[in-house]
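Lecture notes, unit on binding sites. The following record was shown on slide 14. It pairs a sequence with zinc ion.
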Amino acid sequence: MTRDYSKFLPPEMRRGHSDQNDPPLKRLGWQPYFAQQTSVDELADTPPVRIVEVHRNALHVIGDDIDELIPPLSDATVGDWVLLNREQAQTSRVLERKSIIQRRAPGSDRQIQLIAANIDTAFIVSSFNQDFNVARLERYIALALDADITPVIILTKADLTDTPQDYLDQARAISDLITVVALDARGDEPREKLAEWCKPGQTVAFLGSSGVGKSTLTNALIGNQLIETQAIREDDAKGRHTTSTRQLHGIPEGCMVLDTPGMRELQLTDAISGIGDLFSDIRDFANQCRFRDCQHETEPGCAVLSALERGDIDTARLKRWRKLIAEEAFNSANLAQRRKKDKEFGKMIRLNKTKKPGKY
Ligand SMILES: Nc1nc2c(ncn2[C@@H]2O[C@H](COP(=O)(O)OP(=O)(O)OP(=O)(O)O)[C@@H](O)[C@H]2O)c(=O)[nH]1
Ligand SMILES: [Zn+2]
């Protein structure tokens, strides 16, 4: 007998024009990776649920025949799979993640904040206007790669540009391994063009600056206007901040989509391997430098500088790589290290004022 679990799914999944034969857990993003971490007995005692929303004092979890609020779990975030202990929810086990996006909190202790877990594909969104910036795309791509998430570049507002080819060429030049999709985020295009990544069992997220069309894209996938979007301001071509909740939505195709505010403040933290993956050619040269700690500035035997001279590395690309590496090192350092780095880089802000007697 097949039970109808649809009433336990988020509203946007209930309408479903999709293949309803997909098991509810699969439609929530359950994959063999998670199943392998548990056993039939354990699953029977503690059913798997996915955190679809984080409230201040509760987690909204959904599973097969389950849709409820449970008390917060330390070290759990939206997208996590949890084996729910119904007697003692606090002891529920968070399953090992396939991927995790995190950031350093602002402030002095700069703790790691978990942003979202178990995302398969990150759509890195930029628009065909002033927002377009190769360095920014690379930064998001490095973050995605580092988090073990497949990046896909999406260029929105294709309807508003007369020169799409320029931007497309630049975006495609970033990496042979990354697909670039151009579209109008409004209407049916996103569903058609993003279908390849939005299959049952998959979880996708949109990253990018404010106003590039993330909410519009999410709405296009969800199939209705659940998320508020705001008209773009004409003066600076930047949308105002409109997204207020971080939430996982089910979409009719059976895939989950995460809507993520705050991604704008995402810093490059501990993303060194992601940067290396994106700039693998430069990394390979850097590995051949004579000195392990080569800064690729003036050192003898620097393979990066030699490659630059031969024209094997593009100057602008090398500059962007250096900047990302420096940003990553700075963000990943703890406070004491940061102070030291501040000094090293001569960035420590010194008050040049001479103390006036009697003033202190
Ligand atoms: N013409 C056109 N307008 C678009 C397109 N994509 C988004 N817009 C408009 O751009 C504005 C901003 O879009 P949003 O979807 O709110 O942008 P966002 O990235 O979610 O912004 P935040 O929520 O601030 O992060 C809205 O008025 C959208 O209708 C597009 O492809 N073409
Ligand atoms: Zn070097």
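Take-home: The longest strand covers residues 48-54.
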